[in-house]
Amino acid sequence: MTEPLLRVEKLVRRFGGILATDNVSLAVLRGELHAIIGPNGAGKTTLISQLTGHLAPHSGSIFLAGRDISRFPAWRRSALGLARSFQITSLLPDFTAADNVALAAQAHDGHSFRFFADARKERGLREVAEAALDRVGLSDRAQVPVSRLSHGEQRELELAVALASRPQLLLLDEPMAGLGATESARMVKLLSELRREVTIVLVEHDMEAVFALADRISVLVYGRVIASGAPAEIRGNEEVRRAYLGDQHVVTRHG
Amino acid sequence: MKKPLGASQLVAVLLVAGLVLLPLYSQLTGNVFVLTMFTRIVILALAAASLNLIMGYGGMMSFGHAAYLGIGGYAVGMLAQEGIGSGFIQFPVALAASAIYALVIGSLSLRTRGVYFIMITLAFAQMAYYIASGLARYGGDDGLTIYKRSDFAGLINLSNRVQFYYLCLACLLGVVFLIWRIVNSRFGLVVQGLRSNEQRMQAIGFPARRYRLVCFVISGTMCGLAGALLADNTDFVSPAVMYWTRSGDLMVMVILGGMGTLFGPVLGAVVYLLLEELLSEVTEYWALIMGPLLLLIVLFGRGGIMGLLGRSWRD
């Protein structure tokens, strides 16, 4: 069996007495879209933050393409091809959309100890930014400061920023959070295109989207993975129904 | 994308023109005092501009920036005392000493954030102050008189008022030019990005601390230049230039003029020091007027004078 792109082994993270991540083991294969679902407070964002290096696990390991990255700081993981979007939009508010994306491209184009040339006039960086903005449908908003973009546009920009670093693995933390119906539909369409190009770990509440997009789903409850498998298996899993989906009509309606 | 000249740009142009033409005015009117006063203003404007690089663009609220004025000054004074009068040695030593101090202080204090960063930079500057006070060989508390200004082998005569003024002005404009290039460079965008959202910058792959540290060192080195010039200007250096109130003055100049604007700190220095001069002529309680005035500007003019100008232009 080939090495999965991302392998998580027995990850543990506590907050005081609460086990937010309880012996989580996961494997994300190259090319798949792996969704992580779970009720509120299941520890999804905590898990993502440990994968990206924003939070240190208490024990366990994380391997990216076979390499142990458990102790790497966030910026080094990013350099190795791991990109994320944030559940609560986290951009550079006083920069334009284009600047936000160009900086991501710049981060992956050698060091930035260059003090003299105007970075905004660097063709290479701007082209990558334009391409990424175009990808998410924001080309005509490139010169608008982030603080003046709508929430939906900011969500799309989060994605463009992640794409601009040409990641191996994209970790998306609830990209649909707070989006209206039309915006959500656009995001699903976008993700369904992206999944062909890049391996994606998707944390999402929107069940319809998850079951439409995912190759595999892992279910997280109280910090533990209680089931992992193809959408059909998850839908049929008795434990998942009881622990998470609870009211059965949710399952049947989307099933 | 050429934009029409805004009010703040216009003020910057007038400011520079005024500073360049000042010796002419002094010559024509025979007013020597104004030149002496503005030499000091230009030097402190340089210090404020250097502080603005970390404070305005980098979001690092250093409350110990006056330490570099002392380090640069003592480098000149101590070398002069030991018989090394050449500016070609004194000035590089002043810059190097400031850079090393910034590197050490920065690598320790940049581990902290917010109030802690303010306090730790303040504490280090106070330490430098007390160390200078203890240098018995170099005047201790009383300070050190510099009997001969830095000698630049006939290239420029620092004892000539006009020449010295233009040297200071050239240094100021040179530093502002450098800062302008820096803030628009790759490095500058990273530093400003870190001010805006550090978590995001880490997530897209930037190691925050080393970029901040380099910025901190550049800023300190620039301020060390101001310190060396200041010592030559007063023919004297004492621990008082490093005292925390002096660091506070520099912060006020930056905030008054406009943080994170290119010419804001220069304007801030000119306005602050002129006000100090004028008000202290009127009353010895000038601080009573200055205080509320600054409060008003901070409360109602977010972005300082440059911010006010920018706004009024748009409305």
Care to describe what's here?
The complex is a heterodimer of chains A (255) and B (315). Chain A is 37% helix and 24% strand. Chain A is α/β, with parallel strands linked by helices. Chain A has helices spanning 44-52, 74-79, 97-107, 123-135, 151-164, 181-194, 207-213, 231-236, 238-245, 248-254; strands at 6-15, 18-28, 33-37, 59-64, 67-68, 82-85, 169-173, 199-203, 216-221, 224-229. Chain A contains ten helices and ten strands. Chain A has a six-stranded mixed β-sheet, sandwiched between helices. Mean pLDDT of chain A is 91; it is low at 248-255. Chain A has two domains: 1-80 and 201-255, Rossmann fold (3-Layer(aba) Sandwich); 82-166, 3-Layer(aba) Sandwich (Rossmann fold). In chain A, α3 packs across α4 (123-135) and α4 crosses α5. With 315 residues, chain B is mainly alpha-helical. Chain B has one domain (8-314): ABC transporter involved in vitamin B12 uptake, BtuC (Orthogonal Bundle), CATH 1.10.3470. Chain B has a two-stranded antiparallel sheet. In chain B, α2 crosses α10 and α3 (66-81) crosses α9 (208-234). The two termini of chain B are 21 Å apart. Classes of the chains: A alpha/beta (255), B mainly alpha (315). Chain A binds chain B through residues 52-54, 73-76, 78-79, 83-84, 86, 90-95, 99, 103-104, 106-108, 112-120, 122, 161, 165, and chain B through 181-182, 184-190, 192-193, 196-197, 199-208, 211, 214.
